[in-house]
Amino acid sequence: MQKNKILVIIGVLMLLGSSVLAQKFSGGVKAALVISQVDGDNLSGYNKVGAMAGAFANFTFLNERLKLQLDLDYIQKGSRQPQTGDVPDSYKMSVQQVEVPVLLGVRLFSGFWLEVGPSFDITFKGKEYLNGIEAAGSATFKVFELEALAGVN
Question: 54 Cβ partners below 8 Å, 6+ apart?
C-alpha cells in the first residue's frame, strides 16, 4: 500500500513537471518618453514631455499562443502652457504615478500580439505651477485610477 502511494506521488510530480516545462517565463526592463495631455485643463495639444521606466514579466502558455504580462511602471504625466506674447502666464501640471498593467495577450500572426487588460494607477505626487511658482490651492488629484488598455505589440 505504501509503495502505491509513492508511485502515485511520483506520477503526479512527473505530470506537474512536464506542465511546468510547457510554460515560459520571460521579463525585462523598459524606458520611454511620454507625451501627455490632460482632460479638463482647458489647454489643447501634447505639450508636456515626461519619462517612463519600468519592468515587466511575461508568462506564456498554450503553445506560446497566449501570454499574461505584468508590469510595474513609473510614469510622469501632465500638461504645459509656455509663456508667449499671446499668453502672459506660464502654466505647468506635473503628475507622477506608478502604473500596474495586467495584460492578456493573444498571438496573431508573424509574432504580433493583441494585448488587452486593466491598468491600476496610483498617483503619489501632483502639483500645478503658475509662472514657475507652485500654485496655492493646487488641484486635487485622484489617488487611484483604473484604465482599460488595448494594443498590438
Answer: 29, 30, 31, 71, 72, 73, 74, 75, 99
Q: What is the pLDDT along the chain (153 residues), one digit of tens a residue?
A: 566 666 566 665 555 554 444 568 899 999 999 888 776 666 666 678 899 999 999 999 888 889 999 999 999 988 877 767 776 678 888 889 999 999 999 999 888 999 999 999 999 888 888 888 787 766 678 899 999 999 998
Query: 500638461: which residue's cell?
Result: 79
Residues with Cβ within 8 Å of 38's Cβ and at least 6 positions away in sequence, in order, are: 48, 77, 78, 79, 93, 95
Please enumerate in sequence order all residues whose Cβ is within 8 A of that of 98, keeping only pairs 6 or more positions apart, or say none: 72, 73, 74, 75, 121, 122, 124
Q: Which three cell numbers stand for residue 84?
A: 508667449
Chain-centroid distance, C-alpha 115: 12
Give which of 57, 153, 69 is closest to 107, Cα–Cα: 153
The residue assigned the cell 487611484 is 144
